[in-house]
TrEMBL record:
Entry coiled-coil feature ranges: none
Lineage of producing organism: Eukaryota, Viridiplantae, Streptophyta, Embryophyta, Tracheophyta
Naturally occurring in which organism (per UniProt): Zea mays (Maize)
This protein's name: Purple acid phosphatase
Keyword Hydrolase part of the UniProt annotation: yes
Residue ranges constituting the Purple acid phosphatase C-terminal domain according to the UniProt record: 369-425
Reactions catalysed according to its record: a phosphate monoester + H2O = an alcohol + phosphate
Domain of life per record: Eukaryota
């Protein structure tokens, strides 16, 4: 059968993008402020200003096609890091030279490469190289492909304290750049992103510009991400979903026993962190459900007293935007998280911030998880300003504003969560709370309740 002509593909692309735009507008709703805070007009902040903060990541505008582009790093199993970058020159080898002294490379690793085509777009050569074993809490200098500029990163610590930056629904606006500037100002060991990265929405060149935009931060600290609806990019009969996301943002799913890059887990210092997929099957007969159950059953709270879950669609949401979209996933998986005594569930999708107290089965519960919605990184679709009133009993703080979160896990029992509004040159700390781990509470104890919980996780 002959390949479809470019014109029908273009029309399908136009229809897909238009549908996405209308859906986003409908979900956001009218610009009615749900809380007292009224957001001022935005200040301009540009990519060049961000790059000036990272001299080790600056590249000449006329960089050679063989030089690395869109460099980012992610954890790849215990004491290993995955280095990912793109080149326009297919002859560049997938190798990384690295060491602990500037411009001195004593180690070398070779990896793999991939590429993909999407409608009329063809990607560059996407390199993935795993390096290690690495020392904890150590600065490494590295070079991609045997040439080009030198980059550096710092490995996470092996014990507390652990500092995590959290941002969702990032996009590529002036607010995105401001958010990234604010994250740069905070000391963090890694960044967690619960979906909606580039907002490319079928226009593949926007994946390239997003990779360039985040490179200064993402090449310097590991970024651990999961997919959102804007990563799907599925066009029936023409393009399968998640092609660009899976090719560009490879996560350590195989190391965690998962069969899909759309959900996985990893451990850092004393935290076990699970990244779930809101846009792949999650009912009790799915691979993801079976994997989650097995993963939770293996968690040792003496070794990793903190148990944190990230996913894209929130389960507890008092905003009118995306109301109820997480209900079916919550009905399937919330009992598993409750049985495992998950401490926090962090989501995106709704373009506003909200923090709930510990909750389970739609009611406040001291043994439930703290739920946080943080889909306010700076996306182009704007803020979701309409909240449902009266506020639900479980909702503690909510605000329609762009921003980012910071989670500092101080020790095995205490963590400090802050959310920073993105209005000024300096981030404004607007929500601030100490969270106690369930590992140090009466919720986890040798008794009938805990035995029943283990039965849920260990049952066939």
């Amino acid at each position: 059968m002959a390949a479809p002509s470019p014109l029908p593909r273009f029309l399908i692309l136009l229809l897909a993008v238009t549908s996405s735009a209308f859906a986003a507008a409908a979900a956001t709703g009218a610009p009615v402020v749900g809380e007292d805070y009224v957001r001022p007009p935005p200040a301009r902040c540009h990519r060049k200003a961000l790059l000036s903060l990272f001299p080790w990541s600056k590249k000449e505008e006329s960089a050679a096609s063989s030089d690395p582009q869109q460099v980012h790093i992610s954890l790849a199993g215990e004491k290993h890091m995955r280095i990912t970058w793109v080149t326009n020159d297919n002859s560049v080898p997938s190798v990384v030279d690295y060491g602990t002294k500037e411009s001195t490379y004593t180690m070398k690793s070779q990896g793999e490469s991939t590429s993909y085509s999407y409608l009329l777009y063809s990607s560059g050569k996407i390199h993935h190289v795993v390096i290690g074993p690495l020392e904890d809490n150590t600065i490494y200098y590295y070079r991609c492909g045997g040439q080009g500029p030198e980059f550096q990163f710092k490995t996470p610590p092996s014990q507390f304290p652990l500092s995590l930056a959290v941002v969702g629904d990032l996009g590529q606006t002036s607010w995105t750049t401001s958010t990234l500037n604010h994250i740069k100002q905070c000391e963090h060991d890694m960044l967690l992103l619960p979906g909606d990265l580039s907002y490319a929405d079928y226009m593949q060149h926007l994946w390239d510009s997003f990779g360039t935009l985040v490179e200064p931060l993402a090449s310097n600290r590991p970024w651990m991400v999961t997919e959102g609806n804007h990563e799907k990019e599925h066009i029936p009969f023409f393009e399968s979903g998640f092609q660009s996301y899976n090719a560009r943002w490879k996560m350590p799913y195989e190391e965690s026993g998962s069969r899909s890059n759309l959900y996985y887990s990893f451990e850092v210092a004393g935290a076990h962190i699970i990244m779930l997929g809101s846009y792949t099957d999650y009912d009790d007969s799915s691979d993801q459900y079976a994997w989650l159950k097995a993963d939770l059953a293996k968690v040792d709270r003496k070794r990793t007293p903190w148990l944190i879950v990230l996913l894209h669609v929130p389960w507890y949401n008092s905003n009118w935007a995306h109301q109820g979209e997480g209900d079916s996933m919550m009905a399937s998986m919330e009992p598993l998280l409750y049985a495992a005594h998950v401490d926090m569930v962090i989501a995106g999708h709704v373009h506003a911030y909200e923090r709930a107290e510990r909750v389970y089965n739609s009611r406040p519960d001291p043994c439930g998880a703290v739920h946080i919605t943080i889909g306010d990184g700076g996306n182009r679709e704007g803020l979701a300003r309409r909240y449902r009133n009266p506020k639900p009993a479980w909702s503690v703080f909510r605000e329609a504003s762009f921003g980012h979160g910071e989670l500092k896990i101080v020790n095995s029992t205490h963590a400090h969560w802050t959310w920073h509004r993105n209005d000024d040159e300096e981030p404004v700390r607007t929500d601030d709370v100490w969270i106690n781990s369930l590992a140090g509470s009466g919720c986890i104890q040798e008794g009938s309740r805990d035995r029943e919980s283990r039965k849920i996780l260990m049952s066939p």
